[in-house]
Amino acid sequence: MKIGNVEINGKAVLAPMAGVADRAFRELCVSYGASYVVSEMVSAKGIEMGDRKSKTLSFLSEKERPAAVQIFGSDPITMAECVHTVMEFSPEIIDINMGCPAPKIAGNGGGASLMRNPQLAESIIRAVVKESPVPVTVKIRSGWDETSVNAVEMAKRAENAGASAITVHGRTRKQMYAPPVNVNIIAEVKKNVSVPVIGNGDITDGQSAALMLENTNCDLIMIGRGALGAPWVFSHINAYLEHGRIIPEPPVSERMRVMIKHVETICEYKGESVGIREARKHGAWYTKGLRGAAKYRKELGMVSSLDELKKIAFRICVENQ
Ligand SMILES: Cc1cc2nc3c(=O)[nH]c(=O)nc-3n(C[C@H](O)[C@H](O)[C@H](O)COP(=O)(O)O)c2cc1C
């Protein structure tokens, strides 16, 4: 299938996740078969003000293609202008964040708060589409709260404004990340637009991926938390969707091998001190569900070097044989 003119192979997209889905993680997910990846959200205002961090977040490597850069903001002109800077990193797609519930974003008129202002949302999309040489996608929630579920209206407006695909996270802003995901609203969006629809929320394996596709008729699925500490989830989903095969979870030794490789890559890209700090949260995800996970989380939460991380990982393997 295609998003605009961009060929997408496979069904499972890596979700944008600020503070987590950085270049190292995205490349890892692509190596396991993610069909495309989306950057952490980038502030259009930050770009406008020349903020180095915002620009760094937009960087995409050749090992993570196709890839989208996700931008957020509340002003159509600023959003459109940041396209030029973002294009320096040659994204195949530009995604607009209209779903972030965080007060820092939604409280400033961006992210999910645009669900409350569909007209402004449409102007932003139109302005970005006009400036963008690549397809523009939009990521929305089901609505702001249960009394204002308006994903269908938002999606129609997005399509009308030139969006090439729409991701629907089937929860309201008020629900944040708490279950359940409203698959009916994703199905409704799919019925009401002709551009591809990407279903998102609580997909963690092949079966939940298949259910999302069957229940909503969506074109692609997007995985966020299900990939944390488990980037191989993409190969599991692909195996199930393509051949009905259920791949068992990898053994502890493999989990630890991937964790170390992941952290080494973060260290390579961001330096060891940042890499080790970030290893603490990733370590908790990679050890989730293991015997002694709480103890490991605590130990990994204080890890201070790559050598120490490797020693702990080795001990985890021995203790979980
Ligand atoms: C740590 C974290 C960071 C996130 N950052 C972003 C973001 O930058 N942009 C965005 O549109 N959504 C963001 N999200 C939402 C996810 O993209 C996704 O919509 C949500 O987690 C639901 O999917 P899941 O159930 O597969 O996790 C974030 C979610 C998490 C857990």
Would you write up a description of this structure?
The structure is a single chain. This protein has 321 residues and is of the alpha/beta class. The chain has two domains: 2-243, Aldolase class I (TIM Barrel); 252-319, Putative flavin oxidoreducatase, domain 2 (Non-ribosomal Peptide Synthetase Peptidyl Carrier Protein, Chain A), CATH 1.10.1200. Helices cover 46% and strands 16% of the residues. The strands form two sheets. The chain has an eight-stranded parallel sheet. Strands 1-2 form a two-stranded antiparallel sheet. Strand 1 and strand 2 (6-7) form a beta hairpin. The N and C termini lie far apart (43 Å). The mean pLDDT is 97. It binds flavin mononucleotide. Residues 15-20, 40-41, 70, 97, 99-100, 139, 169, 177, 200-203, 223-226 line the site of flavin mononucleotide (FMN).
What descriptors fit this protein?
321 residues, alpha/beta, TIM Barrel, Non-ribosomal Peptide Synthetase Peptidyl Carrier Protein, Chain A, 2 domains, 14 helices, 10 strands, 46% helix, globular, binds flavin mononucleotide
Would you kindly provide a brief summary of this structure?
The chain has 321 residues and is α/β, with parallel strands linked by helices. The protein has helices spanning 23-31, 44-48, 52-57, 76-86, 103-106, 118-131, 151-160, 183-192, 206-216, 233-243, 252-270, 272-286, 293-300, 306-319, and strands at 2-3, 6-7, 12-14, 37-43, 67-72, 93-98, 136-143, 165-172, 197-200, 220-223. The radius of gyration is 19 Å and the shape is globular.
